[in-house]
Records
---
Amino acid sequence: MNLQFLLKLALTIALVLTASMLSKRPGFLGALVAALPVTSLLVLGWLYVETHDVQRVATMSMDIFWFVLGGLAFFPVLSLTLKQGWQPWLCFMLAGFAAFAGMSAAQYLLAHLRTPA
């Protein structure tokens, strides 16, 4: 393992643990940390550092945008089904399916509507 990989690993672990710990406290800080586009920022930053290809970073940035939009269905489905008193395992499963469907739609649109580079 090289130093760059270990740095990526440490940052990822720190972000997940921070969001998890903050979510146990009252308030919205856990949700805020989880919602920040820190993962995208790190991935795009590492991509640039490793390739110095700004076009690749720009393309990936827009791809991430469309997948984020597709995946947003997860949150209202999870919230609404939990508030209705459904079994948590079923709520997570349905929310995951909603996110998968939305992200699949985004993938389809990206594959079929993107203008050739």
Note: Residues 88-113 form the longest helix (26 residues).
---
Amino acid sequence: MSAALEVTPTDHDVKSGVRNTDSIAEGLSDLLADTYRLTFKTHAYHWNVEGPLFFSLHKLTEEQYENLFDAADELAERVRALGKLAPARLDAIVSASIIKDKDKTPSAGEMCTDLAEDHQRVAHRFHALIELAEENKDPVTADLATERSAFHEQAAWMLRAITA
């Protein structure tokens, strides 16, 4: 049994017809980083939001961070299906992500605006991944990226609608 515990994960060559798997896996890994950072940020705002819209924002952010958490697993599993290793270090997640933290705790309205802007940026990155996947005969990644982009676009719209 001890030999079974000594297996170290490695990249594998996958012959599915997808071209340029390194670039696609890198794009997926970057978006996994964004997803993880946005999960934490959304969860932190969920914990700390206050004011008359507390309950509404608390519930909305809960729905969003739960969706994001599930999506991280889907993205990592797609990287593995392409034969590559998913990110396994927090510093790699932080450095690859476009999601940044605020210097101070924002107001409820600033939280909504900040999250909406983050969702828009992530949706834009998913759009680029869709193009890359389609160019390289990877409809599975393109479909996953389309689904995730739709989530981010809707999340941004809902958050913007609160502050309108």
Note: The chain has five helices and no strands.
---
Amino acid sequence: MLPFEFIVFGSPISLQTNNRALLQAWKAKVRQTAIANLPINTIPTRDRIQVAIVYYYKRMPLDIDNIAKPILDAFNLLIYIDDRQITDLIIRKRLIESSADTRELPLAIASALNQNRPFIFVKIEFSAV
């Protein structure tokens, strides 16, 4: 199952939001997108893992530290048993317009950039540690 990567379109919702319904809807969207991209009969790993999240935005990005937790929580009991298994977390944010050179990017990101709307790219793999 790992490495596993996918795109979720839309702007992430900050853990700091006062709109709990919106936060839960975002977590559900992330989880459903992961499910749609997971191989059939995948079971959550018990191994240590690393996660990379890249947030592509159009304007006024959110604080990246506040977007990670809802995304990671969406994967509990789906990709891993608990987010305590994460040994490394890489979070980046990139302006869509400044990411015009797509030659060095994974195909999924290059395709998503062509849609010119906010999204997150998530990659989960086994930890080297």
Note: The helical segments are 20-37, 64-74, 107-113.
